[in-house]
Design brief:
Blueprint lengths: L2 E6 L5 H19 L7 E5 L14 E7 L5 H19 L6 E7 L2 H9 L1
Helix pairs in contact: 1-2
């Protein structure tokens, strides 16, 4: 299950949050090549955050997936999510950072069994 955790220091109202969740779900599904029904997006607004020494609008993301990611996919996904955040929240793409985790199926299954 691809999971994208997004954090921003901006407040996010319900309408904008819904739009971001929908757009990000479609983007992750399409770019990674997994069904939307497997994609989870979490959006956390008003998170105290400094980036490059300032508290100007910024965002951080973590994408966790069992396969489907790699250098070319990561670049495309990063720019697409940055574009969504710039369009919906006016966060400049230079103030967005995303970390990718490709996890193995076995380690994920063990976590779920606990």
């Amino acid at each position: 299950m691809p999971t994208l955790n997004l954090f921003t220091n901006l407040p996010v109202d319900a309408v904008v949050a819904s739009d971001i969740l929908k757009d990000a779900t479609k983007a992750v599904s399409k770019i990674i090549g997994k069904p939307e029904s497997y994609v989870m997006i979490l959006l956390n607004g008003s998170v105290p955050m400094a980036f490059a020494g300032t508290e100007e609008p910024a965002a951080y993301g973590e994408l966790i997936s069992i396969g489907g990611i790699g250098p070319s996919v990561n670049g495309k996904l990063s720019s697409t999510i940055a574009e969504i955040l710039e369009t919906k929240l006016s966060i400049d793409s230079s103030r967005f950072y995303i970390k990718f985790y490709d996890v193995e199926l076995q380690s994920t299954c063990r976590i779920l069994e606990m």
